[in-house]
Amino acid sequence: MTHSKPRTAPSTRYAASEKFLQRAERVIPLGSQTFSKSRTQFPLGVSPLFADRGEGAYLYDIDNNRYLDFICSLGAITLGHADPDMTAAVVKQLGLGVVFSLPSRLEAEVAERIVDRVPCAEMVRFGKNGSDATAGAIRLARAFTGRERVAVCGYHGWQDWYIGATSRHLGVPESTRALTHTIAYNDVAALDALFNEYPGEFSALIMEPMNFVDPRPGYLSEVKSCCHKHGALLIFDEVVTGFRYAPGTAQELLGVTPDLVTLGKGLANGFPLSAIAGRADVMKLMEEVFFSFTMGGETLSLASARACLDKQYEKDTLNAIERLGDRLKADVGERIRTHGLEGILSIVGHPSWTLIGFADRPGATAFELKTLYMQECFRRGILSFGVHFISYAMTEADIDFALAAYDEIFPILAAAVETGDCRRFLECEPLVPLFKVR
Ligand SMILES: Cc1ncc(COP(=O)(O)O)c(C=O)c1O
After folding, report:
1. Ligand 1 close to Cβ of residue 205 (< 6 A)
2. Which structural domain range is residue 391 located in?
3. By C-alpha distance, which of 240, 164, 177 is closest to 208?
4. Dihedral angle of Cα 194, 196, 200, 205, to the nearest 10 degrees
5. Residue 346 · residue 356 · CB < 8 Å
């Protein structure tokens, strides 16, 4: 092996990003609106820090480096950046007005499309971020059942009711934290035991029906029965999986219909729109539950959603995404084996949203290996922290490009493990976890 000290840090590749960070941090804490896009998750010295523009499958940083964008704006992009059909729809709406003093027809038109496609959806309300939808669904479940406790499984957003249950609970009242209980995925006995511990107190279980671990056969229908046996609602949080896994979302793919669903991210190909949908008898209570904001009916996002859902349907975009993702997953798996990284790297998840996992090794912790992977991806024009969100703008040639990069990167990771000195390969400080939910 000739992988001694790798190339020295690029001195100019991220110069504009690093300079701009100083300016941004004078006026914006962390210089970012989203933790996962901040310098806490993009190691300083080896990472792009600010985007200039997006074009299809690619993102350009402010140093004008180009990246195949596997982060896809944290899963919000399903069709690609600046998709021409979305742009045309939004520009047309822009000429008609952005937000009105009355609801617009667009609200019902997008709601009808969701009702047509998503099995549990009989009625719909819109929000802006995924967190609006999850917080609204929990308030609705509490109102419907007259109960206060909630069980959670996955990540559900920034608001008190959920984030209080994680290690990032600074500023959340103890009384709120005490009402949220985290359960393990694929373990119905634990859910049943939790419900039995607080009889008649749980309003709902909100869960990602799947993220990177497949549900074991029967698990989701057992969860549904368990919730209903205890008088709790089942809410699927499909903020990521919605309109990515299948036209009718993950509940269609996995064959279990929840009481409510929360949607976001890919609903409007990057425009800020989220939704709560579900059983009409539950949703009707939204006439009393306060879920109301000035921008709830903002039309650019709704016009984008209408165009996005229509394009998904007409072009069968999710099928194309799945085919590309299938190939990427299989070929990355093959490379993990051929580069001797089995047990160190793994690739998991639905083809439209896969993740490379990193395992701890002596002298090479999972976070050091992940940092090294990112350092080497970024310098080769791949934007990923291990994730591969696939968009419709990606092509076979893009997948070839990524695989060719991995053929260079995986031997470096193998060398870092083999020497037991991953730090020697790093040109930055290793990442530390934001918090762990998956
Ligand atoms: C499953 C899930 N639910 C909810 C959210 C919160 O969405 P947002 O960040 O748009 O508020 C996220 C965000 O990543 C998510 O992945």
Report:
1. no
2. 15-81+317-425
3. 240
4. 30
5. yes
Structural domain includes residue 282? yes
**CA nearest ligand 1 atom 3, residue:** 156
Examine residue 324 and state whether it is found in any structural domain, yes or no.
yes
Does residue 154 have its Cβ closer than 6 Å to ligand 1? yes
What angle (nearest 5°) sits at the alpha carbon of residue 139, between those of residues 136 and 143?
A: 135
Answer yes or no: are the C-beta atoms of 425 and 372 closer than 8 Å.
yes
pLDDT at 5: 44
Same domain, 26 and 142: no
Same domain, 133 and 264: yes
Residue 130 CB less than 6 A away from ligand 1: yes
User: With a 6 A CB cut-off, is 237 part of the ligand 1 pocket?
Assistant: yes
Q: How would you classify the pairing of strands 233-238 and 180-182?
A: unpaired
Same-domain check for residues 335 and 291: no
Domain count, the chain: 2
Type and span of the H or E element at 382? strand 382-383
Report how far ligand 1's centroid is from the alpha carbon of 132 (Å). Answer: 9
Distances (CA, A) of 19 to 14, 26, 41, 46, 50: 9, 12, 18, 14, 10
What CA–CA distances, in Å, run from 404 to 65, 344, 346, 401, 416? 18, 20, 18, 5, 19
Give the mean pLDDT per block of 10 residues along the chain (438 residues): 45 92 98 95 97 98 98 98 97 98 98 98 98 98 98 98 96 98 97 98 98 96 98 98 96 98 96 98 98 97 98 96 98 98 97 98 97 98 98 98 98 98 97 75
Q: Which two tokens stand for residue 238?
A: 């499909």
Q: Alpha-carbon distance 341 to 358, whole Å?
A: 10
pTM beyond 0.85: the answer is yes
Residues 336 and 417 in one domain: yes
Q: Decide: helix, strand or coil at residue 131.
A: helix
Ligand 1 near 238 CB (within 6 A): no
Measured from the CA of 154, which atom of ligand 1 is nearest?
1
Same domain, 348 and 380: yes
Residue type at 310? D
Type and span of the H or E element at 374: helix 366-379
Please give the distance, rounded to the nearest whole angstrom, from the Cα atom of residue 273 to the centre of ligand 1.
12
